[in-house]
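Quick one:
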Amino acid sequence: MQVILDYLKNTGEKLDSEIAAATGLSLANVRSSVTDLHARGAIMVCKSIRYQDGKEIDGILCRISGYIPQAAPGRKPKSHAPAKSEIHD
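Output:
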């Protein structure tokens, strides 16, 4: 289960099938582990239906609970406070 947690922490939100492909675990093993992790409150899940080449694919979308990734490097927009001349009583 730690492999799944580490993978989600490094990559963000992923489908169970993507987790299985990246970690080398079987899809059944990933789904079982995801269910256990969700019951413990370690991850959040939601059912996802996607379409690939007109074919419906059911999956479980997973992400770490309460994890906020670090801000991306670079300049951030500044909030614009009105100048004193713009304030009217």
